[in-house]
Design brief:
452 residues, alpha/beta, D-Maltodextrin-Binding Protein, domain 2, 5-stranded mixed sheet, 12 strands, 44% helix, SBP
Length: 452
């Protein structure tokens, strides 16, 4: 069975290590030929960032085209990560895949084995990339067996957002958001009593991502074989153990007790509930800092941010979310080089600073973060710094790195279905997680056989 290696045991000696092994090996093409763009070329770029981010990405690409007048980039928003992934697969099968596409971090192993991509390591010699300037947690996530497969773009962690104004009205310290599961319950009971117009004190959308992050906080493996990172592909789901049960007992228990507002899947309803004052606290991606700040400001309320709450005694940390940029195969070398130049530019300092300020996603490069610090950005906008600090303070282990498996999107769907069954009283937490784990294990084994 193929091996998957992102980090080695020696990397655990420091908090955010670079993987060992130096620069990735170059392919024969990268070593033997020099590729240049001598005639104008046109490439396509499909991404999964909607709303105001569509214009933000277009602006970044426009700047790229100004600096590279012989490269034309046709940009298209293609829906959610899942939508984009499915459209790319269909387009590749039809022979008209975009040169560059954007998908979530959990699609990494699937894409690396898909047969439809040109890994970065195969062509990066044409336009070398300084990987040492990338933050290690970001870089390591998208590295397999010491080789870079995709270009980090939008990286995030979940945050606790809270309405400071409501906290003051309830007699809570507006500078001290809840830090633990128990404190969330304690704060929620106070808010429910003191702020009667709330539908519920806290909310977040139905997404397994939060469950995964809580699992990382508990430093517990999500799947076997060293969380899928140190040896063979994982063959068994472990998220139905004591750690997973503890998380969902807390999560679904708050819903049962009227402390949590169930807003369903998607990323709009919990933001709207927070912005309208239906809830006083919400968990969401750091990429929502800009949007949620604006929503509360419209109502004259002040917003605070904090780390996501952890189970009492948990010693783990968060892992990155977000997505990366992939290059498809079966294109002329000149077009592949143009695609490489595009993804390299999008991950460079100035575009990353612009992206961070417009969204809240933290920059993927240390050098971009240094630019923000030098200009005093975080002094004036402390809420934009919270996610970055949360990541830096997270200890690095194979569990906090996040799991790696080929059927991650399906696993997420199964976990979310299980949570809904608990909400509805159809299953206990253990029954729901056992069912999701059993189905995930079956799918993992089937996927492993296909890629052997």
């Amino acid at each position: 069975m193929k091996n998957v290696l992102l980090v080695t045991c020696s990397l655990l000696l420091i908090v955010f290590p670079l993987f060992s092994g130096g620069q990735p090996e170059q392919t024969a093409a990268g070593e033997k030929e020099t590729v240049e763009i001598t005639e104008p070329v046109t490439i396509q770029f499909w991404h999964a960032m909607g709303g105001s981010r569509i214009d933000l990405i277009q602006g970044i690409v426009d700047d790229f085209m100004k600096a590279n007048p012989n490269i034309k980039v046709e940009v298209q928003y293609t829906g959610s990560y899942n939508d984009t992934l499915n459209k790319v697969k269909a387009a590749s099968k039809a022979g008209n895949a975009p040169h560059v596409f954007h998908i979530y971090e959990i699609g990494t192993l699937q894409m690396a084995n898909s047969g439809i991509v040109t890994p970065i390591y195969e062509i990066e010699a044409w336009d070398p990339i300084d990987w040492e300037t990338f933050f290690s947690p970001v870089r390591n996530y998208y590295t397999i067996n010491g080789k870079h497969y995709s270009m980090p773009f939008n990286s995030s962690t979940p945050l606790m957002y809270y309405n400071k104004t409501f906290f003051e009205q309830a007699g809570l310290d507006p500078e001290k958001p809840p830090k633990t599961f128990e404190e969330v319950i304690e704060y929620s009971k106070i808010l429910k009593q003191k702020i009667p117009q709330l539908k519920a004190p806290i909310s977040w959308n139905l997404n397994s991502w939060y469950f995964e992050e809580f699992h990382c906080l508990m430093d517990a493996p999500f799947v076997n074989n060293d969380n899928g990172r140190m040896g063979e592909y994982p063959t068994r789901a472990l998220f139905n153990g004591q750690a997973g049960q503890r998380i969902l007992e807390w999560w679904t228990g708050m819903e049962r007790d009227g402390l949590f507002l169930d807003v369903g899947p998607g990323w709009a309803n919990h933001r709207a509930a927070f912005g309208s004052g239906e809830v006083a606290m919400v968990m969401s991606s750091t990429s929502d800092v800009n949007q949620l700040t604006g929503l509360l400001k419209e109502k004259g309320w002040e917003m605070g941010t904090g780390y996501i709450p952890r189970p009492e005694g948990a010693r783990g940390g968060v892992t990155i979310g977000g997505g990366s940029l992939w290059i498809t195969n079966n294109h002329p070398n000149e077009e592949l080089l143009a695609a490489l130049k595009l993804v390299k530019y999008i991950s460079s300092d100035e575009p990353q600073v612009r992206w961070h300020k417009g969204t809240g996603y933290f920059p993927v490069r240390e050098t971009a973060m240094e630019m923000l610090e030098a200009e005093g950005w975080f002094d004036e906008n402390p809420n934009f710094r919270t996610a970055f600090d949360q990541l830096l303070e997270s200890p690095y282990t194979l569990n906090t790195a996040g799991s790696l498996m080929g059927v991650f999107p399906e696993a997420r769907s199964l976990i979310e279905t299980g949570i809904q069954k608990v909400y509805a009283g159809e299953m206990t937490v253990k029954e729901a997680l056992d069912e999701a784990a059993e189905k995930t294990t079956k799918s993992m084994l089937e996927w492993n056989e296909l890629v052997e």
